[in-house]
Each structure stands twice: as structure tokens, then as C-alpha cells.
Write a structure and sequence with these properties.
Radius of gyration: 26 Å
Structural class: alpha+beta
Distance between the termini: 77 Å
Strand order of the largest sheet: 1-2-3-4-7-12-13
Number of strands: 13
Helix content: 25-40%
Oligomer: single chain
Order of helices and strands: HHEEEEEHEHEEEEEEEHH
Largest sheet: 7 strands, antiparallel
Length: 295
Amino acid sequence: MFKQLQRMMYLSLVGWMLVSCSKEEVLAPADEQNLGTITSIANATATKDGNRAMGNPSGANTSYSNYLIDKAQFSMSYNTYRGTPNWVSWHLSSAWLGSTPRQDDFRADNSLPSAFYRVQPSDYTGSGFDRGHNAPSADRTLTVTDNSATFLMSNMIPQAPTNNQQTWGNLENYCRKLVSQGNELYIIMGQYGKGGTGSNGYKETLASGKVTVPNRIWKVIVVLPVGTSDVSRVTSSTRVIAIDTPNSNSISTSWGTYRTTVDAIEAKTGYNILSNVAASVQSVIEARVDNGPTS
């Protein structure tokens, strides 16, 4: 009797252990690594990162035609002979976005060297061209200071209204959609050539020649999931969007129509746009035309 009772207790204990084990998820080493990755992504916090992290496309320095400006909100190569930036570079993540309204305080950039002509908002008046932002107002809405900085005339180019308000507006909205999906972006925008067609027809310069109207306007966007050590995370599979548009009022409103390669833009401008990215990675991502979604 005693032995039979012992046996029954033993079998009950074994059964309980088997049931307990079946309810506990046992992770294999590979699963533990995956869980760590998932946790790190879930815990990733968007930050304000360096606006020139991907590089200095033109090797900007103190030259009057290639003058390097680093502001908290964006970086640029400014060309005083054209009265516009050659390119503007900025980082975009949810850390830059808030509820600050559009300031609309267009003004001369008095931080430019005294020898530079400081473009005035009125230099564009009646021209048929918008004061087209490079770094958009809606990409800097965390504070009044951030948003106001985007209205400096050093951040503007003469841009055909349809190009600015629709084609580029649609692309800018799509960029912010990518941010809302958990990404951070590095964006470089520039222009080249002379002469565009605005709402009042073709023009090559404004303000008695002080401001050059660009012929083409381009943008390169590097898309990364939110994280750290951003440059080192750019790989041959990283999505890079490159577009090159005519500065024309008859432009298509679909920005996807103008997708091209970074290589093609570099051939037109002479720049090394993603100069801080490993050369082996550049050779792949800069030769590829993006075919991802456009909205």
C-alpha cells in the first residue's frame, strides 16, 4: 500500500513538471538574438542627429561660391554669386517635429559674411517664382526658433510654383510619412544650371542679376529605421530616393516621375553626395533607381 502511494505521488510530480515545461517558452540562442533586436527597435528613441552626417557633397569651405554654413536646423553650401545655396542638408526624425505653426517670417540672413549680398524677400516679388524652401518649414516644427530658421532667404531658391507647391510638396509630405512609420531620414537638396519657367514665363535671374534662377532641382533621401550610428548602418540594401526635376511650372505633380540615380546627379553637379558612406556601399546604392512607394 505504501509503495503504491509512493508511485502515485511520483507519477503526479512528473506529470506536473511536464505540463509546466509545455507552458514555458524556451528560446533557442537564435531566438534570443532576435528578441534582443526586436527589443532594441521597440526601445529606439528618435533624436536630432547631425545634418551633415552623410557628408559634405561639394567639400564646402570658406569660398564665396562654396561657403559652408552649419546651423542647428540645417547645413548648406552657399553661393553668393548665385544668391542661393548650392545644396542644403538636414536630418529628419520625429525628434524635430511638434506643433509649432508656420512662422512665415521671410527675412535676409544677416549671419552671412558682410561681403555677401544678403538676398531680401522682396527680391522675388512679382517674379513668377516662389521663395522655395530647401529645408521645409514643416520639417522643423518642434520650436519657434527651428521653424523660423527655415524662412531665412539663404534657405531659398527661385522655384516654379507648381514645382514647389505640388511636386516637391508631395515629396515632402511623403518624407514625413516615412518618419511616422518609424524611420529617420537624411535629406540633401540642391540645384544646378541657369534659367527656369515660372508663372510669368522664363527667367534666368532675379534682383538685377543678384539671384540666379536654377534650371534643375534635385533631392537625395536616405531612409533608415530609427537607431544610432547612422552612417555605419547604411548598407547596399538601404533605400535611397533620388529625384531631379526641371524648374518649370508645367512639371508633373507626381514626383516619382523624376526618379533617377545619385550617380546621375553627381555627374551633373560634380558632387560626392554621400561622401561619408563606405565607397563599396556607395557604388551600389548610388547606381540604383528607387522603385518603392510614392505615397
